[in-house]
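Need a sequence for this fold. Nothing fancy.
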C-alpha cells in the first residue's frame, strides 16, 4: 500500500512540529476542507485544542507501586484494591473462587466508570481512589455476581512498550476509535469518530457537549519496586484493556508468573453484561460460576482477541525481557548495537 499523501503529512509534522496540525499549514488544509463541506468544526476550534497532561495515578499493591494513566487506569486500580485481600496462590489462580472474585471486582469497578467523564480533574481521581471509598466498594463483593451497568467502548487501538539498558521506559497506547471514513484530499489519513463514545442525551455524565473530552479505557501502566521500574505494560482491546491489564498484574505480582506466562494465561472479561470466558476455562469451573449467578459467554477461542492483547516488558536483575500477547498480532524486538543490548 502506497500512501504519498500521508507520507507528506508526516514529513510536514517532522519539519514544522505538532503545532502545524492545529494552527499551521495542515490546520489550514483541514479547516478549508471542513468549510467546503459545511462541517461545524472551524479553524478556531482547531486552534483551541489542548492536550490534557495529567500526573499518573498510583496505588500500592503487595509491595509494588502500580502507576497508570487516568482515567482508564482508575478502573484497574479500583479492581486491584477490591482484590487486595485475596490470596490467589492459596485459592489457585484459575479456581472458580478466584475467577468469581476477579469478575466481581471488574464488574463493580466498571460500574464506577458509568459515573465518569473524560474531563475529570485530580480532585475526582483522589476521591475515587480514597481508602474510605475503596473500602465502601469492597463491601459490595459477595458470593454471587453483583449487578451493575457498564458503557461499551469502541475498538481500534494499538499499544507499544519500550525500555532501554539505562532503565528508561515508555508505555504508549493510541486509538482511532471508530474511523469516520472521511479523508481530506492531500492529507492521507481518516479522522476518527470519537463522538460515538458520548451519550447523546443531555444532563448525564457523558453527555455530548462542545469541547468535552471522551472517556477512554486506555491505561498504559508501569510497576515500580521502590524507585525502580520492573514492569511496563499496556494493551489495545477497548474496555478489555482494563481487565487484561488487571489480570496480568495479578499474574505477575500475586502469582509470580514470568512475563510470557502472565500475558498468555487464560483470561476473563466482565463489565455489566455476560462474563466472557476463553475455551481453556474448564467446564466444571464454568458450571460453578453459573451457579453463582454469572451469565456466561464462552466464545469458541482458546486465545480470544476480545480479551485484550497485552504487550509487556519486565526487568529481571539488569536485563529486560518482553512478552507479546498470543491473542493477536504483536511481537517482541531487541535492538543490539556493537554487541551490547540496547
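Here you go.
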Amino acid at each position: 500500500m502506497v500512501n504519498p499523501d500521508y507520507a507528506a503529512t508526516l514529513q510536514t509534522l517532522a519539519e514544522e512540529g505538532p503545532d502545524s496540525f492545529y494552527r499551521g499549514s495542515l490546520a489550514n488544509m483541514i479547516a478549508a476542507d471542513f468549510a467546503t463541506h459545511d462541517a461545524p468544526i472551524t479553524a478556531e476550534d482547531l486552534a483551541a485544542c489542548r492536550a490534557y497532561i495529567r500526573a499518573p495515578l498510583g496505588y500500592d499493591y503487595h509491595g509494588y507501586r502500580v502507576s497508570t494513566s487516568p482515567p482508564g487506569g482508575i478502573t484497574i486500580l479500583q479492581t486491584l484494591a477490591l482484590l487486595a485481600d485475596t490470596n490467589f496462590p492459596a485459592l489457585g489462580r484459575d479456581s472458580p473462587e478466584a475467577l468469581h472474585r476477579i469478575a466481581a471486582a471488574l464488574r463493580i469497578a466498571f460500574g464506577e466508570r458509568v459515573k465518569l467523564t473524560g474531563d475529570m480533574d485530580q480532585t475526582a481521581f483522589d476521591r475515587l481512589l480514597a481508602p474510605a471509598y475503596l473500602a465502601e466498594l469492597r463491601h459490595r463483593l459477595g458470593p454471587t455476581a453483583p449487578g451493575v451497568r457498564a458503557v461499551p467502548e469502541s475498538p481500534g487501538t494499538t499499544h507499544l512498550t519500550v525500555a532501554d539498558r539505562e532503565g528508561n521506559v515508555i508505555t504508549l497506547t493510541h486509538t482511532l476509535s471508530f474511523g469516520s471514513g472521511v479523508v481530506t484530499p492531500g492529507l492521507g489519513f481518516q479522522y476518527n469518530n470519537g463522538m460515538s463514545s458520548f451519550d447523546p442525551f443531555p444532563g448525564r455524565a457523558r453527555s455530548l457537549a462542545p469541547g468535552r473530552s471522551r472517556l477512554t479505557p486506555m491505561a498504559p501502566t508501569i510497576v515500580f519496586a521502590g524507585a525502580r521500574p520492573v514492569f511496563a505494560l499496556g494493551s489495545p482491546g477497548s474496555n478489555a484493556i482494563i481487565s487484561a491489564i488487571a489480570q496480568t498484574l495479578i499474574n505477575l505480582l500475586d502469582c509470580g508468573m514470568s512475563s510470557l506466562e502472565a500475558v498468555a494465561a487464560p483470561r476473563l472479561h466482565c463489565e455489566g453484561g455476560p462474563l466472557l470466558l476463553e475455551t481453556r476455562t474448564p467446564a466444571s469451573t464454568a458450571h460453578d460460576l453459573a451457579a453463582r449467578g454469572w451469565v456466561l459467554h464462552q466464545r469458541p477461542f482458546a486465545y480470544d482477541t476480545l480479551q485484550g492483547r497485552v504487550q509487556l516488558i519486565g526487568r529481571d536483575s539488569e536485563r529486560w525481557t518482553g512478552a507479546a500477547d498470543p491473542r493477536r498480532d504483536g511481537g517482541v524486538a531487541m535492538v543490539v548495537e556493537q554487541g551490547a543490548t540496547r
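For context: Residues 57-155+215-337 form a domain with the Glutamine Phosphoribosylpyrophosphate, subunit 1, domain 1 fold (CATH 3.60.20.40).
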